[in-house]
Amino acid sequence: MELTLEAVSHAYGDVTVLSDITLGIPEGQIVCIVGPSGCGKSTLLRFLGGLERPDTGQVLQSGPVPEGCLNPLTYVFQDFALLPWRDVAGNISLVLEDHGIRGARAEAIIADVLARTKLSDFHKALPKQLSGGMKQRVAIARALAVNPAVMLLDEPLSALDAQTRELLMDDLVTLWERAPFTAVYVTHNLSEAVRLGHRIVVLSRRPGTIREVVTIDTPLGERRAGDPALEAHQARLWHLMRQEAEAADKELGHV
Ligand SMILES: Nc1ncnc2c1ncn2[C@@H]1O[C@H](COP(=O)(O)OP(=O)(O)OP(=O)(O)O)[C@@H](O)[C@H]1O
Predict the structure, then answer these.
(1) Residue 193: which of 235, 160, 139, 147 has the closest Cα?
(2) Among 28, 186, 208, 249, which residue's beta carbon has the most beta carbons within 10 A?
(3) Atom 17 (ligand 1): residue with closest C-alpha?
């Protein structure tokens, strides 16, 4: 399934948050969204997920969903959003129970997503027994359990330390290489964007408009830290972001 934003604009009260955003999310690609704080990245993700509707413009879904898809659009949040009283398997079974899937069918799905996220040995652990990185793996496993058409990830690694972030980026790349998924990935972190994004959308300061879309052709599995081509992309992104942040600062100075 593909998602398309067509001329999306939105204001909360007097504050225009997004202005004239037109963007395609192609099937099988990870599209990263970066931009200064408050430029409307999370708002855009809520529009894509259908949690809110924009004032003007539209969000279109086209093409079939994957076989066995229970939820076409699924979120992964920064704070994991796990139920503390349910163990790992129980947190995943919750989304299946919502669809009336129990028993052997649920067990098979849970075993599969736990194996894919390297959590099989932890199926009976409670969230409080897990590190931050493992909690986020559970959240990713839970998202995969519904076999979504598009995963919407809102700063999924930003609560984690640098080493754990690296490990989880490797995991996401491995997951994508085994079964390419479609994702929109909001992040502040430009090294995450160049590591995971097939396309990186740079938003301007608020009201967020598309400043530039950077396409990176290097296959995800071949992207290495220190790769000069990736570093050049990252430097370009930082140049754009820095201009926006400086302009936002100057605006504040004139208030
Ligand atoms: N429900 C809401 N009601 C009113 N204002 C809102 C609402 N949601 C977001 N905003 C405002 O819209 C603007 C954009 O918010 P949003 O969270 O989408 O930005 P963001 O780019 O994700 O920010 P950050 O990078 O800081 O997470 C902010 O000024 C925010 O305060």
Answers:
(1) 235
(2) 208
(3) 42
